[in-house]
Specification:
The complex is a heterodimer of chains A (156) and B (775).
Chain A (H helix, E strand, L loop, with lengths): L1 E6 L2 E6 L6 H8 L18 E4 L2 E4 L12 E3 L1 H4 L3 H13 L8 H14 L5 H7 L11 H13 L5
Parallel strand pairs in A: 1-5
Antiparallel strand pairs in A: 1-2, 3-4, 3-5
Helix pairs in contact in A: 3-6
Chain B lengths: L15 H5 L15 E7 L5 E7 L1 H5 L3 E6 L29 E2 L5 E7 L2 H9 L2 E6 L29 E3 L4 E9 L2 H7 L2 E9 L2 E2 L7 E6 L5 E5 L4 H12 L6 E4 L16 H11 L3 E4 L2 H7 L2 E2 L2 E9 L5 E13 L5 H10 L11 E9 L5 E2 L6 H18 L4 H8 L8 H5 L16 H12 L1 H4 L5 E3 L2 E11 L9 E8 L5 E5 L8 H13 L6 E5 L16 H28 L6 E4 L2 E4 L5 E3 H11 L6 E7 L7 E11 L5 E11 L6 H20 L29 E6 L22 H13 L10 H11 L3
Parallel strand pairs in B: 1-14, 12-13, 15-19, 17-18, 23-24, 30-31
Antiparallel strand pairs in B: 1-5, 2-4, 2-6, 3-5, 7-8, 8-18, 9-16, 10-15, 11-12, 11-14, 16-17, 20-21, 21-29, 22-23, 22-28, 25-26, 26-27, 29-30
Helix pairs in contact in B: 5-6, 8-9, 9-18, 14-15, 15-16, 17-18
Classes of the chains: A alpha+beta (156), B alpha+beta (775).
The structure holds FE2/S2 (inorganic) cluster (2 copies).
Chain lengths: 156, 775
Amino acid sequence: MKISFVLNGRDVLLDTDPLRRLLDVLRDEFNLTGVKEGCGEGECGACSVLVNDKIMYSCILPVGSVDGSRVLTIEGYRETERYKVLQEAFTEAGSVQCGFCTPGFIMAAEALLSEDASPDEKSIREAISGNLCRCTGYSMIVDGIKIASRKGRGLW
Amino acid sequence: MGDYINIGRSVRKIDALSLATGADKFTDDYEIHDPLYIAILYSPVAHAEIKQIDVSAAEKVRGVVDVLYYGNVQRVLHTTAGQGYPEPSPYDALLFDRRVRFVGDRVALAAAETREAAIEAVKKIEVKYRDLEPLFDMEKAMDESAPRIHVDDEYTKIPAEYRPEQNLAAEIKIGFGDLERGFNEADFIEEQSYRMHYASHCAIEPHTSCAYFDDRGRLVIVTATQVPFHVRRIVSTVLDIPVMMIRVIKPRIGGGFGGKQEVILEPLVALVAWRNKRPAKVVMSRKEVFISSRTRHPMRVRLKTGVKRDGRISAIEMDCLMNTGAYGTHALTVLANAGGKVLPLFNKIENLKFHGRSVYTNLPVGGAYRGYGATQGYFAFNQHMDIIARRTDQDITDFFKRWHIREGETSAVFKALGEGKEGVSQVINSCKLDECIDRGAGAIGWHGKRGKRIESGRNRVKGMGMAIAMQGSGIPGIDMAAASMKMNDDGSFNLYVGATDIGTGSDTILAQIAAEVLKIPVEMIIVLSSDTDLTPFDTGAYASSTTYISGGAVEKCAEDIKNQLLDTASVMLKAEKDSLKLDAGKVIDKKTGKKVPYDKIAYHTLYIQDQFQIQAQASCTASESPPPFIAQFAEVDVDRSTGKAEVVKFVSAVDCGQPVNPVLAEGQVEGAVVNGLSYALCEDYIFNSKGRMVNPRFWDYKIYTAADIPEIITIVVNSFEKSGPFGVKSVGEIGINGPAPAVANAIFDAVGVRMYETPMTPEKVWKRMKEEGVN
Ligand code: FES
Ligand code: FES
């Protein structure tokens, strides 16, 4: 089946099985390896991408379902000003240890901040509760998002 | 202690940027040209003999290139434990065996052009099993009537108690003083057993390996490992490929926690690649990680103490029974640590006995797991001491302060209990545990809340508990690390270390150490780590060794470079070497104020006069393993009607020597704390009656998310460890030891029931309250 969508701001068209996981398409066809696989069952968030600005697990999303949508991965997002603020904040707060979960958390943070530019602690925790991190213990990621929302005032 | 420009500063993790952008590569991100994909067939039964195996249908699946099982693979006994040679774990594993010993044991593999074909092929392998009686209860493992799990030619490489005919994978006995007399002198005897359960490391990156050939036909293995040099050695031995034909590269690693200290997948990718002269790749699914990789060893710890009315302990007996599962990986050393990292903490006890046994069962295989036995030992120890403090009417913080080991003191246990061989005696150079206890108690508000049973709502009551612990810094006399450095034209330096950054930030820490010696910003150090072709040797990232031992190698190496800089500068400046010092990327003559920047020195040596490369290498071993110390406090809110114990606040105060990078050190502690809390309260392997884990997914094996965590406070209490580079000790593991006992002690404080078993789920707490009639 022919599937077209906007990937990181560019129109893409491919002919593939619509049931293929979006994750595999992103990694294998487009070499977007910032999208990680931690569980393959929609439980860890390492594969998070934004589909029409909503956070989604690309490992349980058939590629056919994004036909006509906008898909943003870390590789597209990292070109933005907002990303730079998040990255700075994450580095400062110690939010990155092994970094395997980090792209997923950054996408979740973007989804949150674009809804609510100055979230309180509780909403941050809830917004990232679909992402697992085994290294940091989360507090430092929560701090990172807090710093980003403060320093990035006006951007979201 | 000096004015440091890098040490003690939270410089940015050097890979944070590339990790955040998703650009840095993990194993699965390597573009391997046209690989064979490997899928593995696991045993569905806990204990059986393979009567017959038919791979013909699998071989016919389109795209399948190779199917391997015991019938066509060499039989080489080895251990998958990625430890130094000779490994202290028994050689009891084969790549594929005729016998399967747990649900999840490897039966066969298929290698195919696509992942799908490989998966389809393993489904078509027909296996007929002859069921053997399974053994699930470790307490019965040594019974006469128990089924035997390893009965062939398994053996140990080191002199150690190993009796597979009794399912005994390891046994340790030490003691001194006169136990009998100690118990007789006591005013009362306290005796209890405590149990800890199976757990998965849950590194978010699953185990992944790939292999390909370089242009000269050498085998390159890129793999998610904590032990690249051990991988090379073990693959070489198991597959009989010369070491010189193998290169192991460790890319970025998505967390290890001990789970990747095992050489599980590497021999498989290497074998498939070698046989087929094609690249090969294998990625474990989460389910495979749960059922087939490694776990925390479950342990039952019985503590018996003789206690005087004032709390003095006149005798202690520690008896540990550890379930190592189907294979004996780390069976001896995790067991040893349960005593070796715990008993020295109370070094004034004169009469002591430690007896530990590791036994085989038909359950998942234990392995290294952050804390490495100390976690299991401390769960027992800290609850036991809470009981004694209460019985002798003392606040536990005072009790701990009175009895813990201090600077200038030693414990005979250090010498008696090593990891795989005798330990080394050592005197404690640095211990700020009192300060940890005081500052931790202050931060959690201990004295206002302990023992108060503050009602926090209808049927809800609060309690406070605490725990102390120590760990080690590397394995003395066994671990070795090496580093080399060279200088570039612009005054920057390449630093090559065998040390393995698995997400901990060790690349950054080691760069900080080198930069400190050379008095330059950390950005001037270019780190390359863990590539067996390019970097020198290191035993790997385990045993809390990297900062202390690999850091020691880096410091030595940088000192050598410093010396060469001074020599050259003294020629260039026509000055006495003694009057020169390094300062901000320059060598300065203290007498004249004349200076020469590093880039000029580099030019001079590379192009101008008496040319040579400024370069150095150094190795480091340790003759001691200075323990870091920690005090951890939990405030818990227990719902009496449901038994749910919710941690509302958790404080850790840690003495890890001089922290090289405080933010990274705190990150190590916090990560360990959350893992520890999650393990203490909810993570669990649930087995059915046939020994199958029924919850191998995050959906059912719950680990904490950001929504579950309490307020967490981490205090780093500086001390100075004179044996370590810049005064450092370790920090990677210790934080996981306190959460479970601190929470258990807090639950007791709240509702008056002892939790002798983890995980402390609402059902279990509720049941205990029912038993004690307190709800
Ligand atoms: S890989 Fe998609 S949620 Fe875990
Ligand atoms: S930083 Fe390792 S999983 Fe989050």
